[in-house]
Protein 1
Amino acid sequence: MTEAQRPNDEQPQEPVPSDEPETPAAETSISEPEVEQAVPAAEAEAPAAEREQSAAEAEAPAEPAPIAYAAAPAAAAAAHAETERKRRSPAKRTVSRAQRRERSVAKRRRRRTLIAVGGGFIASLLILGIVLPSVVPLASPGQNATPTLVPAAGTQVTVQDAVEVAEGEQHEAYTTTPPTSGAHYAVPAPWGVLLEQQADEAIVRNLQEGAVVVNHNLSDPTQVEMLTDYLTGQAGYPGCLVAQPYDAVADGNIVLTAWGWNQTITGFDVEALDAFIASHRNRGPLFLDNNCGVTPAVAVPTPTPVVPDHTNP
């Protein structure tokens, strides 16, 4: 088909003239040598960028690991509470040390208490051992140890200072005759029934050691014999007993003396002798033993001992 035979719509369009001047198109084509040079350069720049990105990622701080209890808050909170409880509660070693310390303190406290109680008990025994003999006369062998409180027999007199003197040495005069206290020798007179009068200073030493002295001026030999038999028959004789003739006593009388006490009786009076001896025997200020430091020659049972009530002379 020729161009004359084509329909109008198929006829080639002729260019429409334009009033604007035509601008020459920019040359964008690249020669083949330049393309070949640009491709390797781009390929070289790509690894360098990748390396820089890797280095930046390595230098960046690592993201913190997710908190354990973020995923399970109840379990994490329980674990945290248990950790806090263990941290705040004392360790077993600390508790054990505290218990040992408490036991040690308690043991020392018990030991001090036992020592104090034992010391007090021993002190009480010592005090009783010193005081009791001066308050209650101890029973002689064969005596009933149960005392009975009775008024003290005799008359209580003023006690003079117990000053020890040598034989022949001057001293304060006695306030009673025979004496009942005061100056004395270091050694007592013999114990028991004596046939001669002894020095007052020696007899006062006997009184200090707890003696009851029977000072008599009996002219009847029968009464002297009865008095002798009576005294030698006393339990523990001659301990704590002295009998002697005494010129200053009235004829036919007996003056009984003890430390700070005396009593005058007429003739041989058994009841008066019993009461005075029971009240004052072995009650001197210087206690030696149950028998005034004398070995007894006779151990005869006697009635229940009596304790004199010195508050009601």
Protein 2
Amino acid sequence: MNKTLMFLPALGLTAVFACAAPPARAELFDQDASVAPGAAIASSDVRWMEKAVRAQAAQVEAGKLAQAQGQSGQVRDLGGKLAAANARLSEELTALATRKQVVLPNQPDAAHRDELRKLAGMRAADFDREYFNSSGLKDNEETAKLCADGIDDLKDADLKAYAARTLAALKRQHALLRAVVVVQQ
């Protein structure tokens, strides 16, 4: 009988924890974006926001790696600038999503995480070139295309304006990347 009594309170605690509110931020479990009930936003816009914020998170992490592991001063400086710029863009999108009652993750997607792990494990001699070719230019171009498509396809006017501002910023980043790549070759 005592065993039963000890078990029941433990079961009650389990039930209390099981019914607790979910975490406030999606990134705790690397979940997809979530939308509050009653939020007036198209599901395609939510998917676009998730792709954009994950791409920016990857660019932030790649920039931090370049700052830490870049062999040339140019790579380290550019990595820091790109990490800071993409962090600002990500913060702006996250704030916009919050106003739209959408919770966004703040981690790169699985493919970018794999790419970042590969980059982090590279030999010093290969790091700069690989950073430019994968995390620098390629990711910048992919995110710019995402924004250009967003300008055409997004339904929400605030998101369209964000996509346009971000595309302009990404074009400036691309010019910086191209300038350094020419020097590196």
Protein 3
Amino acid sequence: TRYPLPATRYPLPATRYPLPATRYPLPATRYPLPATRYPLPSRYTSVMPLVKIHLRRGKSDEYRRSVADAVHEALVKQANVPVDDRFQIIFEHEGGSVIAHASYGGVSRSEDLILIEITLNAGRSVEVKKNLYADITARLGRDADVRPDDVVINLVEVTKENWSFGSGKATYA
């Protein structure tokens, strides 16, 4: 039997054999379309975060781990990040090296301010981002006793070709 091909501007030549069914069907055209038009497996569309957490110097190892765990768990739950996709850097700063207005944005910050910068693939909806901010803040309050006013989160969105996870290869390009 022959599988019907969708009508396209540039039809493929007829073949004697049916085209195999694939998990990720490609458009039937003579000339290949740009790679962004093809559906990709989920391992290529996840968020791929790199998290930088900035804290005041002098916090315990347990506190730092609680903060890092809370941020990662929120990313897994809200942003569809795989559990094993964890790349985090914790920076500790002396008191005078972090300058943040105490009430900008209508909050009341203390000396225990935490700045979280998350670099991730572009394309998340505003709703996902809002849920992520809320979940990170709630988990930090519950797990590390951080006041909601002391959490500043910044998302930096990049395109997928900006990642290399080793061997000098553009992992997703």
